[in-house]
Design brief:
The chain is mostly helical and about 260 residues long. It has one domain: Mitochondrial carrier fold (Alpha/alpha barrel), CATH 1.50.40.10. It has ten helices and no strands. Helix 3 packs across helix 6 and helix 6 runs antiparallel to helix 7. The relative contact order is 0.10.
Length: about 260
């Protein structure tokens, strides 16, 4: 990871480490809002309280549905972020000749090449993303809430300290990522199918379907390729999820 950071910094400078960051923020702001809002709303409707008496599957289902809602509402931003951050040098020139609007136009044109609807281009990789977000969001929300409830039962007269909430959030992120990481690999490959796969001419404008892409990844690099970068991802997911859950809980209590 540190060698990769040095390589990017040497080639592109500090800003190279933040390529696609504005697209990330454009996605994260509504994504987090919809995700947390949906989960809190579903908790009320499912009768989920501050104890562990409710079926664990209700917590998992509430988290999964919240994740699905957030992903569906913001998916084009996620695809745009992936394209801008990880596109090859040959294709990146097309994105760098203007604004994000140019990138959206290119994705729209890609959609028109294999369907009648350009919007399809803005949802490339949507299926594997949904397959991944269902267990990811369900596991993360379930783990975080269960750990908080366990602590509250052990310490009924004490509020949960902020550092403990942070650790619980980080644990939830690591657990969720461990369960779903192979699907995250498939999602990224599907989003970047044209840039990362050497397709024959007949397939040059058609995204790979999910099962075919999984088979191709395993055939070329083995099962281990479904876990490439997993350890690196923990460095991002653990603090990201920990801080996200911590700040949400803090603001919710203080508002």
């Amino acid at each position: 990871m540190f060698k990769a950071i040095r390589a990017v910094y040497k080639a592109e400078g500090l800003l190279g480490l933040y390529r696609g960051h504005s697209a990330t923020l454009a996605r994260v702001f509504p994504y987090a809002a919809i995700n947390f809002m949906s989960y809190e709303h579903l908790k009320v409707n499912f009768g989920i309280g501050r104890d562990n008496s409710v079926s664990p599957w209700k917590r998992v289902l509430a988290g999964s549905l919240a994740g699905c809602a957030a992903v569906t509402a913001t998916y084009p931003f996620d695809l745009l972020r992936a394209r801008i951050a990880f596109i090859t040098s040959q294709e990146h020139s097309a994105f760098s000749r203007g604004t994000y609007l140019n990138a959206i136009r290119q994705l729209w044109q890609e959609g028109l090449t294999h369907s009648r609807w350009g919007i399809v281009g803005l949802f490339q990789g949507y299926v594997p993303t949904m397959l991944g977000i269902i267990p990811y969001a369900g596991t993360s929300f379930f783990t975080f809430d269960s750990l908080k409830n366990w602590y509250a039962l052990q310490n009924p007269n004490d509020d949960i300290p902020q550092p403990v909430r942070l650790v619980f959030g980080m644990t939830a992120g690591v657990a969720a990522q461990s369960v779903t990481y192979p699907l995250d690999i498939v999602r990224r490959r599907s989003q970047l199918w044209r840039a990362t796969e050497h397709l024959p001419p007949s397939d040059s404008h058609r995204p790979l379907d999910t099962l075919r892409l999984i088979r191709q990844i395993v055939r070329v690099g083995g099962v281990r390729d479904l876990f490439v970068g997993m350890s690196i991802n923990y460095f991002k997911v653990a603090p990201s999820m920990g801080i996200s859950f911590l700040i949400f809980d803090y603001l919710k209590d203080n508002f």
